[in-house]
């Protein structure tokens, strides 16, 4: 492997890593700002501990918690509730004027099925001084795992901003610039490589001889039908086999893989839709044979035989009274075709390949 390719792979890997780091930071930063505002994220409402009143219970200042719905709250549970003593008796409660507190339940009161809770900061000496109705309790407070706590908290610091965003972006920009310079240098150079494999050009006769048995059988049926017409003669060129009546065009045959292509001397615009012929009149090679029918099945073969008769009728061709006998050997091997010149081999130095471009002929 060339050094330039190895270097490019290394640069690409480093660039992908930096890009992933930047994405991670952006996610952490976005989530952190959402959590600071007490917004909902992934179906959970989050909040940030703003004081040290719950340090004794492991809830440190700036720790992030999410609120878990709880139908049963007991003594010892840590809950999130609205702290607004002046609004507890009001008819219209305004959440915007209340602050969210995270404290521990130290007592539960049940008055005819209506629960209220006495709360206290575990690090405070006294409780909060009043019972909070369940109407103002949002749920239990659950700490995020320590790993996520550290990521979100670090992302909000000046150091986190530099390490996770500014530096990776600068490195990524530098790597992209270096990659661009390398590409521009390579574009200026002309890279020519000799293609190692051998190419073969097959004539029509070779393609027919190397075709599968069912293709050969259909070909023989077509040939037999064509030769039933008086003065019909065929000529095999490198690309096609062409049938004419005198000098008038009749049918041209080509074989491509598992398909026999028949070109008829008929106007494609006057053909029935069931034949699904393809108009070739815009191609100079097929100006005299503008209607193409692809034969891949026995039904298509029946259509081809019908079109042969229609072409003959349209051009006034007449069938022979005595059938013409013919014999064709279709059992040639690849080596025999190559030896007889029906398959041509291109030498290894006959063509070059330009990187990222088309073949360039060797004109030496």
From TrEMBL:
<keyword id="KW-1133">Transmembrane helix</keyword>
<protein>
    <recommendedName>
        <fullName>Signal peptidase I</fullName>
    </recommendedName>
</protein>
<keyword id="KW-0472">Membrane</keyword>
<keyword id="KW-0812">Transmembrane</keyword>
<feature type="transmembrane region" description="Helical">
    <location>
        <begin position="151"/>
        <end position="178"/>
    </location>
</feature>
<feature type="transmembrane region" description="Helical">
    <location>
        <begin position="12"/>
        <end position="36"/>
    </location>
</feature>
């Amino acid at each position: 492997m060339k050094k330039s390719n190895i270097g490019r792979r290394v640069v690409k890997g480093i660039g992908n890593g930096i890009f992933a780091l930047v994405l991670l930071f952006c996610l952490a930063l976005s989530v952190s700002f959402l959590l600071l505002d007490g917004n909902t994220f992934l179906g959970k409402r989050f909040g940030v501990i703003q004081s040290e009143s719950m340090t004794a219970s492991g809830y440190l200042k700036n720790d992030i918690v999410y609120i878990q719905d709880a139908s049963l709250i007991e003594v010892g549970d840590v809950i999130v509730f609205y702290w607004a003593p002046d609004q507890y008796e009001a008819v219209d409660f305004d959440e915007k004027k209340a602050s969210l507190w995270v404290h521990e339940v130290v007592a539960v009161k049940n008055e005819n099925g209506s629960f209220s809770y006495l709360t206290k900061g575990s690090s405070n000496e006294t409780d909060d001084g009043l019972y909070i109705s369940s109407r103002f309790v949002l749920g239990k407070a659950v700490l995020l795992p320590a790993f996520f706590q550290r990521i979100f908290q670090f992302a909000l610091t000046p150091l986190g901003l530099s390490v996770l965003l500014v530096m990776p972006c600068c490195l990524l920009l530098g790597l992209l610039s270096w990659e661009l310079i390398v590409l521009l240098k390579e574009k200026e150079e002309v890279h020519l490589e000799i293609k190692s494999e051998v190419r073969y050009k097959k004539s029509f006769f070779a393609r027919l001889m190397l075709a599968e048995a069912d293709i050969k059988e259909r070909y023989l049926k077509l040939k037999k039908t064509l030769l039933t017409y008086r003065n019909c003669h065929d000529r095999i060129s490198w690309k096609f086999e062409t049938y004419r009546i005198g000098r008038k065009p009749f049918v041209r045959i080509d074989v491509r893989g598992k398909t026999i292509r028949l070109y008829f001397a008929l106007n494609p615009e006057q053909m029935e839709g069931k034949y699904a012929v393809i108009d070739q009149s815009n191609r100079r090679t097929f100006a005299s044979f503008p209607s193409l029918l692809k034969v891949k099945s026995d039904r298509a073969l029946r259509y081809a035989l019908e079109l042969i008769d229609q072409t003959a009728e349209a051009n006034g061709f007449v069938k022979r009274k005595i059938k013409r006998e013919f014999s064709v050997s279709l059992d040639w091997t690849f080596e025999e075709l190559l030896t007889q010149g029906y398959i041509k081999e291109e030498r290894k130095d006959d063509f070059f390949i330009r990187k990222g471009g088309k073949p360039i002929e060797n004109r030496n």
